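User: Teach me something about this protein's shape.
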Amino acid sequence: MNELVLAGHSFGGQTALIAACKLDKPIKAVVVMDPWLWAFETEFKSGELKVPCPVQIVSSETFHPSEKFDSWGTVLNILKYAKQAN
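Assistant: First, the predicted structure itself:
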C-alpha cells in the first residue's frame, strides 16, 4: 500500500488532502485540481493539518476568487507544510 496516490477535483481534492492527513497508511503523493479549501482553511494555514507526502496542486484563477477567502495563501501553506519528495 506504499504506492497509493490520492487524487481529486474540487470537493474531491479537499477530501484527498484530508484523507492523506488522517490515514494511518503511507501515501506516495496527493494530486488535486482546484481543491475546495474553505472548510479547512484555518487548519491548513496554521499547520495543524500537514500532508505527510508530496503534493501537486493545479489551481485555476477563476476557481478561487480572492474576495471570498485567501485560497492562494491556503495553497501556499499546504505546500509549505507538506512533506517534500526524497
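Now, about its shape. Helices lie at 11-22, 41-46, 71-81. The CA atoms of residues 10 and 36 lie 5 Å apart. If you'd like, I can walk through any region in more detail.
User: That's plenty for now, thanks!
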